[in-house]
Amino acid sequence: SDDTAKRYESYGWKVYNADGHNKEEIKKVIEEAINYKGSPKIIIFKTHIAFGAPTKQDTAGSHGSPLGDDEIKEMKKRKKPMKNGKNYLQIGLKNTLKKQKN
Questions:
Q1: How far is it, in rounded angstroms, from Cα 9 to Cα 11?
Q2: pTM for this one?
Q3: Contact 44, 17 (CB under 8 A)
Q4: Is the CB of residue 50 less than 8 Å from the CB of residue 62?
């Protein structure tokens, strides 16, 4: 594997790194990238596969197979409630991107 951030920096790109599970950090880095008026830019979000799954987070067992009913029930207990069937982060990101277009 390579160091994606260093590779893009060597191309002259502006590189942003953020925790892909932290909605405040995601919002902040997206706004910074939107306002940056220079070289091309890339945002690298560090995430965990099957984030929040009690026994499958960061495991090969979460690749290409269902988590299973028990795992999903436990994840839902740990997660914040959904709004209109959508994750709050998805709604916030959509609103941020709409502002950029205007």
A1: 5
A2: 0.65
A3: yes
A4: yes
